[in-house]
Automatic annotation (TrEMBL):
Keyword entries, A-Z: Membrane, Transmembrane, Transmembrane helix
TM segment ranges: 33-52
Highest taxon above the source species: Bacteria
Stated name of the protein: Pentapeptide repeat protein
Keyword set includes Transmembrane: yes
Length: 298
Protein backbone atom coordinates (compact mmCIF):
# COMPACT_ATOMS: atom_id res chain seq x y z
CA UNK A 1 0.00 0.00 0.00
CA UNK A 2 2.90 2.34 0.79
CA UNK A 3 4.56 1.63 -2.55
CA UNK A 4 1.32 2.37 -4.40
CA UNK A 5 0.96 5.63 -2.52
CA UNK A 6 4.52 6.70 -3.38
CA UNK A 7 3.98 5.87 -7.04
CA UNK A 8 0.70 7.77 -7.01
CA UNK A 9 2.42 10.79 -5.38
CA UNK A 10 5.15 10.76 -7.99
CA UNK A 11 2.61 10.45 -10.79
CA UNK A 12 0.55 13.35 -9.40
CA UNK A 13 3.68 15.46 -9.04
CA UNK A 14 4.78 14.79 -12.64
CA UNK A 15 1.32 15.26 -14.14
CA UNK A 16 0.66 18.47 -12.18
CA UNK A 17 4.03 19.92 -13.16
CA UNK A 18 3.56 19.00 -16.84
CA UNK A 19 0.06 20.49 -16.96
CA UNK A 20 1.23 23.76 -15.41
CA UNK A 21 4.14 24.01 -17.86
CA UNK A 22 1.83 23.39 -20.83
CA UNK A 23 -0.92 25.72 -19.64
CA UNK A 24 1.37 28.59 -18.57
CA UNK A 25 4.64 28.27 -20.53
CA UNK A 26 5.66 31.77 -19.48
CA UNK A 27 5.55 30.94 -15.77
CA UNK A 28 8.80 30.01 -14.04
CA UNK A 29 9.54 26.29 -14.15
CA UNK A 30 10.40 26.34 -10.44
CA UNK A 31 6.84 27.41 -9.55
CA UNK A 32 5.39 24.54 -11.57
CA UNK A 33 7.73 22.04 -9.89
CA UNK A 34 6.88 23.44 -6.43
CA UNK A 35 3.14 23.16 -7.10
CA UNK A 36 3.54 19.63 -8.42
CA UNK A 37 5.53 18.66 -5.34
CA UNK A 38 2.83 20.07 -3.08
CA UNK A 39 0.22 17.99 -4.93
CA UNK A 40 2.29 14.85 -4.48
CA UNK A 41 2.83 15.71 -0.82
CA UNK A 42 -0.92 16.08 -0.39
CA UNK A 43 -1.38 12.49 -1.60
CA UNK A 44 1.14 11.25 0.95
CA UNK A 45 -0.52 13.31 3.68
CA UNK A 46 -3.91 11.79 2.83
CA UNK A 47 -2.37 8.33 3.03
CA UNK A 48 -0.88 9.15 6.43
CA UNK A 49 -4.28 10.32 7.71
CA UNK A 50 -5.94 7.16 6.44
CA UNK A 51 -3.25 4.99 8.01
CA UNK A 52 -3.60 6.78 11.35
CA UNK A 53 -7.39 6.34 11.30
CA UNK A 54 -7.00 2.67 10.43
CA UNK A 55 -4.60 2.13 13.34
CA UNK A 56 -7.04 3.92 15.67
CA UNK A 57 -9.92 1.69 14.60
CA UNK A 58 -7.77 -1.41 15.05
CA UNK A 59 -6.80 -0.30 18.55
CA UNK A 60 -10.44 0.38 19.43
CA UNK A 61 -11.46 -3.04 18.15
CA UNK A 62 -8.66 -4.67 20.15
CA UNK A 63 -9.71 -2.72 23.24
CA UNK A 64 -13.35 -3.78 22.82
CA UNK A 65 -12.29 -7.40 22.35
CA UNK A 66 -10.16 -7.29 25.48
CA UNK A 67 -13.06 -5.67 27.37
CA UNK A 68 -15.40 -8.46 26.29
CA UNK A 69 -12.85 -11.05 27.35
CA UNK A 70 -12.51 -9.44 30.78
CA UNK A 71 -16.31 -9.29 31.12
CA UNK A 72 -16.61 -12.97 30.20
CA UNK A 73 -13.97 -13.89 32.79
CA UNK A 74 -15.69 -11.81 35.48
CA UNK A 75 -19.04 -13.40 34.68
CA UNK A 76 -17.65 -16.93 34.85
CA UNK A 77 -15.82 -16.20 38.10
CA UNK A 78 -18.88 -14.61 39.71
CA UNK A 79 -21.12 -17.55 38.78
CA UNK A 80 -18.52 -19.90 40.22
CA UNK A 81 -18.48 -17.96 43.50
CA UNK A 82 -22.26 -18.37 43.89
CA UNK A 83 -21.48 -21.92 44.99
CA UNK A 84 -19.12 -20.78 47.74
CA UNK A 85 -19.96 -21.87 51.30
CA UNK A 86 -19.49 -18.36 52.73
CA UNK A 87 -22.60 -16.21 52.49
CA UNK A 88 -20.49 -13.02 52.24
CA UNK A 89 -18.79 -14.40 49.14
CA UNK A 90 -22.15 -15.26 47.56
CA UNK A 91 -23.47 -11.76 48.25
CA UNK A 92 -20.33 -10.28 46.70
CA UNK A 93 -20.77 -12.49 43.64
CA UNK A 94 -24.37 -11.30 43.24
CA UNK A 95 -23.28 -7.66 43.37
CA UNK A 96 -20.48 -8.37 40.89
CA UNK A 97 -23.02 -9.84 38.47
CA UNK A 98 -25.32 -6.83 38.93
CA UNK A 99 -22.42 -4.46 38.24
CA UNK A 100 -21.56 -6.44 35.11
CA UNK A 101 -25.17 -6.20 33.91
CA UNK A 102 -25.08 -2.43 34.37
CA UNK A 103 -21.73 -1.91 32.66
CA UNK A 104 -22.23 -4.48 29.88
CA UNK A 105 -25.85 -4.35 28.64
CA UNK A 106 -25.52 -7.57 26.61
CA UNK A 107 -25.20 -9.42 29.92
CA UNK A 108 -28.33 -8.04 31.60
CA UNK A 109 -30.75 -10.80 30.58
CA UNK A 110 -28.14 -13.45 31.32
CA UNK A 111 -27.48 -12.00 34.77
CA UNK A 112 -31.22 -11.88 35.48
CA UNK A 113 -31.44 -15.53 34.44
CA UNK A 114 -28.64 -16.41 36.89
CA UNK A 115 -30.27 -14.47 39.75
CA UNK A 116 -33.59 -16.19 39.06
CA UNK A 117 -31.87 -19.59 38.91
CA UNK A 118 -30.34 -18.90 42.33
CA UNK A 119 -33.78 -18.13 43.76
CA UNK A 120 -35.17 -21.35 42.26
CA UNK A 121 -32.82 -23.39 44.42
CA UNK A 122 -34.56 -25.36 47.19
CA UNK A 123 -34.78 -23.34 50.38
CA UNK A 124 -36.47 -23.84 53.72
CA UNK A 125 -36.51 -21.46 56.65
CA UNK A 126 -38.26 -22.00 60.00
CA UNK A 127 -39.43 -18.37 60.09
CA UNK A 128 -41.44 -18.53 56.88
CA UNK A 129 -45.20 -19.05 57.38
CA UNK A 130 -45.76 -22.40 55.70
CA UNK A 131 -42.56 -23.79 57.17
CA UNK A 132 -43.73 -22.74 60.65
CA UNK A 133 -47.17 -24.22 60.12
CA UNK A 134 -45.66 -27.57 59.18
CA UNK A 135 -44.35 -27.99 62.72
CA UNK A 136 -46.24 -27.97 66.00
CA UNK A 137 -43.23 -26.65 67.89
CA UNK A 138 -42.18 -23.02 67.98
CA UNK A 139 -39.76 -22.49 65.09
CA UNK A 140 -36.14 -22.30 66.21
CA UNK A 141 -33.49 -20.04 64.76
CA UNK A 142 -31.33 -21.60 62.11
CA UNK A 143 -28.13 -19.56 61.60
CA UNK A 144 -27.32 -21.23 58.29
CA UNK A 145 -30.83 -20.63 56.94
CA UNK A 146 -30.72 -17.03 58.26
CA UNK A 147 -27.56 -16.30 56.30
CA UNK A 148 -28.93 -17.90 53.14
CA UNK A 149 -32.12 -15.89 53.60
CA UNK A 150 -30.10 -12.66 53.48
CA UNK A 151 -28.36 -13.81 50.30
CA UNK A 152 -31.70 -14.54 48.66
CA UNK A 153 -33.14 -11.18 49.71
CA UNK A 154 -30.10 -9.57 48.09
CA UNK A 155 -30.79 -11.48 44.87
CA UNK A 156 -34.42 -10.31 44.91
CA UNK A 157 -33.41 -6.70 45.46
CA UNK A 158 -30.87 -6.81 42.63
CA UNK A 159 -33.48 -8.21 40.23
CA UNK A 160 -35.74 -5.28 41.07
CA UNK A 161 -32.89 -2.79 40.65
CA UNK A 162 -31.81 -4.16 37.27
CA UNK A 163 -35.23 -3.93 35.62
CA UNK A 164 -36.09 -0.70 33.76
CA UNK A 165 -38.57 1.68 35.35
CA UNK A 166 -39.59 5.34 35.27
CA UNK A 167 -37.53 7.35 32.77
CA UNK A 168 -35.12 4.50 32.04
CA UNK A 169 -35.10 4.28 28.22
CA UNK A 170 -33.91 0.70 28.01
CA UNK A 171 -36.20 -0.70 25.25
CA UNK A 172 -35.67 -4.39 26.01
CA UNK A 173 -38.34 -6.43 27.76
CA UNK A 174 -36.52 -8.70 30.21
CA UNK A 175 -37.95 -12.08 31.17
CA UNK A 176 -38.00 -13.60 34.66
CA UNK A 177 -38.29 -17.33 35.36
CA UNK A 178 -39.06 -17.92 39.02
CA UNK A 179 -40.74 -21.29 38.67
CA UNK A 180 -40.99 -22.98 42.06
CA UNK A 181 -39.03 -20.22 43.80
CA UNK A 182 -39.61 -19.25 47.41
CA UNK A 183 -39.81 -15.46 47.57
CA UNK A 184 -40.17 -13.08 50.48
CA UNK A 185 -41.51 -9.53 50.20
CA UNK A 186 -40.97 -9.71 46.45
CA UNK A 187 -41.13 -6.34 44.68
CA UNK A 188 -41.63 -5.48 41.02
CA UNK A 189 -43.66 -2.30 41.41
CA UNK A 190 -43.29 0.14 38.55
CA UNK A 191 -40.97 -2.17 36.60
CA UNK A 192 -41.21 -2.97 32.90
CA UNK A 193 -40.73 -6.63 32.05
CA UNK A 194 -41.38 -9.10 29.29
CA UNK A 195 -42.60 -12.45 30.62
CA UNK A 196 -42.89 -13.46 34.26
CA UNK A 197 -43.04 -17.18 34.93
CA UNK A 198 -43.72 -18.04 38.57
CA UNK A 199 -45.51 -21.37 38.33
CA UNK A 200 -45.60 -23.07 41.72
CA UNK A 201 -43.77 -20.20 43.38
CA UNK A 202 -44.41 -19.40 47.04
CA UNK A 203 -44.72 -15.74 47.95
CA UNK A 204 -44.30 -14.77 51.60
CA UNK A 205 -45.06 -11.38 53.09
CA UNK A 206 -46.36 -8.56 50.90
CA UNK A 207 -45.88 -9.15 47.18
CA UNK A 208 -45.74 -5.81 45.40
CA UNK A 209 -46.68 -5.83 41.70
CA UNK A 210 -48.33 -2.41 41.63
CA UNK A 211 -47.79 -0.45 38.39
CA UNK A 212 -46.02 -3.44 36.88
CA UNK A 213 -45.93 -3.23 33.07
CA UNK A 214 -45.73 -6.75 31.61
CA UNK A 215 -45.50 -6.97 27.82
CA UNK A 216 -45.71 -10.79 27.81
CA UNK A 217 -47.81 -13.28 29.78
CA UNK A 218 -47.55 -13.46 33.56
CA UNK A 219 -47.83 -17.08 34.72
CA UNK A 220 -48.85 -17.45 38.38
CA UNK A 221 -50.21 -20.97 37.94
CA UNK A 222 -50.15 -22.98 41.20
CA UNK A 223 -48.55 -20.03 43.00
CA UNK A 224 -49.16 -19.60 46.72
CA UNK A 225 -49.47 -16.11 48.21
CA UNK A 226 -49.19 -16.27 52.00
CA UNK A 227 -49.52 -12.53 52.47
CA UNK A 228 -51.00 -9.52 50.70
CA UNK A 229 -50.78 -9.27 46.90
CA UNK A 230 -50.69 -5.71 45.58
CA UNK A 231 -51.46 -5.40 41.85
CA UNK A 232 -52.85 -1.85 41.81
CA UNK A 233 -52.49 -0.12 38.43
CA UNK A 234 -50.59 -3.09 36.99
CA UNK A 235 -50.80 -3.60 33.22
CA UNK A 236 -50.80 -7.19 31.97
CA UNK A 237 -50.57 -6.65 28.20
CA UNK A 238 -49.80 -10.30 27.48
CA UNK A 239 -52.36 -11.78 29.85
CA UNK A 240 -52.18 -13.32 33.32
CA UNK A 241 -52.90 -16.77 34.72
CA UNK A 242 -54.08 -17.42 38.27
CA UNK A 243 -54.91 -21.08 37.57
CA UNK A 244 -54.96 -23.04 40.83
CA UNK A 245 -53.28 -20.15 42.66
CA UNK A 246 -53.92 -19.82 46.41
CA UNK A 247 -54.40 -16.51 48.19
CA UNK A 248 -53.91 -16.28 51.94
CA UNK A 249 -54.32 -12.52 52.25
CA UNK A 250 -55.82 -9.44 50.68
CA UNK A 251 -55.52 -8.90 46.90
CA UNK A 252 -55.46 -5.28 45.69
CA UNK A 253 -56.76 -4.96 42.11
CA UNK A 254 -57.69 -1.28 41.84
CA UNK A 255 -56.71 0.18 38.48
CA UNK A 256 -55.17 -3.03 37.13
CA UNK A 257 -55.81 -3.92 33.48
CA UNK A 258 -55.39 -7.17 31.57
CA UNK A 259 -55.42 -7.92 27.84
CA UNK A 260 -55.09 -11.04 25.68
CA UNK A 261 -56.29 -13.56 28.30
CA UNK A 262 -56.99 -14.05 31.98
CA UNK A 263 -57.17 -17.49 33.60
CA UNK A 264 -59.32 -17.48 36.75
CA UNK A 265 -59.52 -21.23 37.27
CA UNK A 266 -59.23 -20.99 41.04
CA UNK A 267 -61.16 -19.75 44.04
CA UNK A 268 -61.38 -15.99 44.26
CA UNK A 269 -59.42 -14.29 47.06
CA UNK A 270 -61.33 -13.82 50.28
CA UNK A 271 -60.66 -10.08 50.31
CA UNK A 272 -60.35 -8.02 47.13
CA UNK A 273 -59.74 -4.27 47.02
CA UNK A 274 -60.79 -2.48 43.85
CA UNK A 275 -61.50 -3.98 40.43
CA UNK A 276 -59.35 -5.27 37.59
CA UNK A 277 -60.47 -4.20 34.11
CA UNK A 278 -60.34 -6.73 31.27
CA UNK A 279 -59.87 -4.99 27.93
CA UNK A 280 -62.11 -5.73 24.95
CA UNK A 281 -61.32 -9.06 23.32
CA UNK A 282 -59.68 -10.53 26.41
CA UNK A 283 -60.13 -14.30 26.54
CA UNK A 284 -61.47 -15.54 29.86
CA UNK A 285 -60.67 -19.05 31.06
CA UNK A 286 -62.21 -20.78 34.04
CA UNK A 287 -65.19 -19.72 36.11
CA UNK A 288 -64.91 -16.06 37.18
CA UNK A 289 -67.06 -16.63 40.24
CA UNK A 290 -66.59 -13.80 42.67
CA UNK A 291 -63.52 -12.24 41.06
CA UNK A 292 -63.63 -8.44 40.88
CA UNK A 293 -63.02 -8.14 37.15
CA UNK A 294 -64.97 -5.29 35.56
CA UNK A 295 -65.57 -6.70 32.08
CA UNK A 296 -66.99 -9.88 33.57
CA UNK A 297 -69.64 -8.14 35.63
CA UNK A 298 -73.13 -9.22 34.60
Amino acid sequence: MLLVTLLAAILVTVVTTAVLVLVEPAAPRSEAVRTGALSGGAVIALYALWLNDRRRRIEEARHDLEGEKVADERFARSVELLGNDADQVRVGALHALAWLAGSTPRYKQTVLDVLCAYLRRPFEHPGLPDAAEASDATPQRDPVADREREVRLTAQRLITDLLPWGEDRDPRAYHLDLTGARLEHFRLEGRRIGRLTARGARFHGITRLSQLDAAKPVWLTDAVFSGRLDMRDARFHGGVSFRRATFGGEVALAGATVASFVDLTTAAPGTQVGTMRAEDGTRVEGAPGRWAVEALAP
